[in-house]
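Supplementary Text 2. Reproducibility record for the structural model of the 239-residue chain.

All settings were left at their defaults, and a single model was retained for analysis rather than an ensemble. We include the record here because the model underlies the residue-level annotations in Supplementary Table 4.
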Amino acid sequence: MILDLADLKRHLQPAFTEQQSTMLATCLYEYYQPIVHQREMAAIRDGLGRVVAAQEVTGQRIDRLTAAQELTGQRIDRHAIAQDRTEAEVAELVQVTKTLLWGQNDLRKQVGGIADSVGQGLEAYATERIPRTLEQRFGFVLESAAPETMGPAGNVAKIDVVCRGMLDGWPVAVLCEVKTNVTETEVREFLVTADRVRPAAGVDDVRILFSATARARPPQRLIAEYGCWLAFPRRMVVA
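Retained model, structure tokens:
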């Protein structure tokens, strides 16, 4: 098979809810598995069958060679031919295996492409929506909103969206982590990343905002404890 179900689900989880990633992973798994499994098994059975048949022929000819030493030269030649055929069958089986591995890698790329597309869509949505929410809630005056890569040399991080502007007359940079559903682990990991890249933000006032597009309950208490913001598509819950 190309991928197991858990591997597919891990590829999809950064961009989908638990339920969505499970359903999509199951669909992909059930769609591709029968097709690839049939091809794999057919190719392997065919290749192994030819290898076993060739080995049986080789064994028979070796037995006859032992029983008739006077025809040893002729039968050694035949044994060599049979051995060559066996090696050719093994080489063919190796090629089939390589082809199956190529198909597995191709599917991984396709699934990764789906996740990348979803992630880019979330970033585009957040780039438009988050500044509007900040403006409505706090009077934030936007100067720019876009993904940024920042941090110390050799240890940079890509921030999904960085909103730069003015808040109460002071320059502010808001570092935004955009997810379909924000988990506690992702909150803690992004807090560590934000602390690392904060000096490279270029302003003294750096805020952190988590954006969740799904209705699943994110860890609001943890986000509030660290003084961060939590934004849903149409409202700000923690400020």
